[in-house]
Amino acid sequence: MASNSCGTSRIAGCQFTLFPMSDKFVDIILGALEKVDTSKVWKNTDDVSTCVRGKIVHVFDVTEALFLHAAKTGEHVAISGTFSIGCPGDTDADSYMDESDTPLNIETSGEITQEAGCKFSLYPMGREDYMDTIYTQIDLSKHRNVEVNAAHYATRLDGDVKDIFSALQQSFDSVQKKVSHVTMTFTMSANSPSNKF
Amino acid sequence: MASNSCGTSRIAGCQFTLFPMSDKFVDIILGALEKVDTSKVWKNTDDVSTCVRGKIVHVFDVTEALFLHAAKTGEHVAISGTFSIGCPGDTDADSYMDESDTPLNIETSGEITQEAGCKFSLYPMGREDYMDTIYTQIDLSKHRNVEVNAAHYATRLDGDVKDIFSALQQSFDSVQKKVSHVTMTFTMSANSPSNKF
């Protein structure tokens, strides 16, 4: 893949929204934000979603930590978003690529045990052989510490939130090494009453 | 694009989740479902998301109607999901392609006036020229009855929910005529207190 507007850096990003299904949604979101160190990522929020950008390790670290701290309240909380890397023209905030690789929230996240269900889809862009890349990756997921099932348009992962994020990050990371522009959508749900719909 | 497992039909689908930010989230979701006629789409729901599949017109009609009826409650409600068509191997429930083209919920949806903000991204798969397709489509959006702005990894649309869904459907429909496998992610938010995050 080639693009004249393609940046030289490999800045990654995640555009996501945290959804607490609770009257206290503002407090839950602000409470989670207070507990998460976002200093190694560029961050922007509006009324629809939040975007964090930087090194892959920090983008996943921050997204995971925000979800964990929100879910820790015991309320039914979900998160939905899209990870992206190599989007042509995405060079803004390249200075965040100078941060060290040490994740800032791994310790506090490590203290939280939380089960969740997740559906994710990988989209390697600009490649005619993209389905092979997807199938190879979905197969790899089976070796990880999560339950993997097929779903329409997606792969379902069940397990501990940290194991799910670890599988997501490994999938994203291994594909982006082979394909310049990759996006990965995901929706994760915790503390859901069963048969909610 | 070619795939041996590619279906011959053009069944579309949407994998989405409705997120009422309210203690009454179960009632809001069930209430919306009661008011929406889903008989022209295949439907499956679990604790993470709902999937509807059928003709493009009905997939959009049902998704829009569910969001409108949930937002009508006045609560802060969001929806996030992925529209998809031409996914290789996606032939299940082809019988729904025999339904007539008349949307079942257009009248009741028409009675609801609701402003919202939306971010969406188009992913034409398996094509090296995918960025041109995306840029052309984003340019087209400007001619519709919604405010269009650029966002990271996405295009932002603001306006009436029905106008937003109309723009989404037109974008999706025009791209899928040129590209076999297309996905389109979206997150829409209504009745949000400003600066919620």
Folded structure, characterized:
Chains A, B: It comes from Lentibacillus kapialis. Chains A, B: Thiamine binds at residues 18, 50. Chains A, B: Residues 11-90, 115-195 form the Thiamin/hydroxymethyl pyrimidine-binding YkoF putative domain. Chains A, B: This is HMP/thiamine-binding protein YkoF. Chains A, B: One of its GO terms (molecular function) is thiamine binding. The structure is a homodimer of 197-residue chains. Chain A has 197 residues and is α+β, with helices and mostly antiparallel strands. The first copy, chain A, has a single domain (12-90, 112-196), classed as Alpha-Beta Plaits. Chain A has 5 helices and 8 strands. Chain A has helices at 25-35, 56-71, 106-110, 130-141, 161-176; strands at residues 12-20, 42-45, 50-54, 77-85, 115-124, 147-151, 154-160, 182-190. An 8-stranded antiparallel beta sheet of chain A has the order 2-3-1-4-8-5-7-6. In chain A, a hairpin with a 2-residue loop joins strand 6 (147-151) and strand 7 (154-160). In chain A, helix 1 (25-35) crosses helix 2 and helix 2 (56-71) packs antiparallel against helix 5 (161-176). Chain A is globular and about 45 Å long. The relative contact order of chain A is 0.21. At the A-B interface, strand 1, helix 1, strand 3, strand 4 and strand 5 of A face strand 1, helix 1, strand 3, strand 4 and strand 5 of B.
